[in-house]
Design a protein that fits this description.
Elements: H1 2-15, E1 25-27, H2 29-46, E2 49-56, E3 61-65, E4 79-81, H3 83-108, E5 113-121, E6 125-132, H4 139-142, H5 162-173, E7 177-183, E8 186-194
Parallel strand pairs: 2-5
Antiparallel strand pairs: 1-4, 2-3, 5-6, 6-8, 7-8
Helix pairs in contact: 2-3, 3-5
Length: about 200
């Protein structure tokens, strides 16, 4: 039911995407990320994809292996966002990470994969990143992955709008920043959300 309710809300989000009348709200980013990960956590485990969730504040660092902070955890300052849009961004990135890991597994006969989620509370913003070990994004694709209808997936398997919409949601709707970069053996997506973005 949780997944069905989320899918219903996602359809509404798509319907209202360019005509959004939603209002931003102060939200606990850990709660939003935890709710997003809960929707796909069992799928990741079922596909032998491990995940690590790390939360960094000026006072502490907590690491959760194949587990998440509780939804009511309060680590840092709440941020003014559209929670449903952040959930959609996270699900888009996680889906792409899972697909990259699956593709690499087939090519290299690997048995497992790993996704790292890091949330860092800084003085003016909170930054979260999602990285995976599913291989690098080709350089020519790295400059285009946020373009509408651009996909690296085989024909019929990707629409090319997930990352494009994610970019608009983060940057135009919430005044943040969404970037991607290659890391050793994989790719990393970084979202910066500023506390004073209203």
């Amino acid at each position: 039911m949780k997944l069905i309710n989320h899918m219903s809300a996602t359809i509404d989000d798509f319907r209202n995407f360019f005509h959004s009348t939603n209002t931003k709200e102060k939200a606990n980013l850990i709660t939003v990320l935890t709710q997003s990960l809960a929707l796909v956590g069992s799928q990741l485990k079922g596909q032998n994809v491990d995940f690590e969730f790390c939360v960094k504040t000026p006072k502490e660092t907590d690491i959760f292996i194949n587990d998440m902070p509780s939804e009511d955890s309060s680590y840092g300052e709440d941020v003014l966002i559209f929670p449903s849009e952040i959930k959609q961004v996270v699900l888009n990135i996680l889906q792409n990470a899972r697909d990259a890991i699956s593709e690499k597994r087939i090519k290299e006969l690997k048995q497992a994969g790993k996704i790292h989620i890091v949330v860092e509370y800084l003085s003016e913003k909170v930054v979260f990143s999602i990285s995976n070990d599913g291989g690098n994004i080709p350089d020519d694709s790295l400059v285009s992955i946020f373009d509408p209808y651009y996909t690296t997936k085989p024909e019929g398997e990707g629409t090319g709008i997930g990352l494009y919409m994610s970019k608009i949601m983060v940057e135009e709707h919430m005044g943040g920043l969404l970037t991607a970069e290659n890391i050793v053996g994989g790719a990393k997506f970084i979202v910066s959300l500023y506390y004073n973005n209203g």
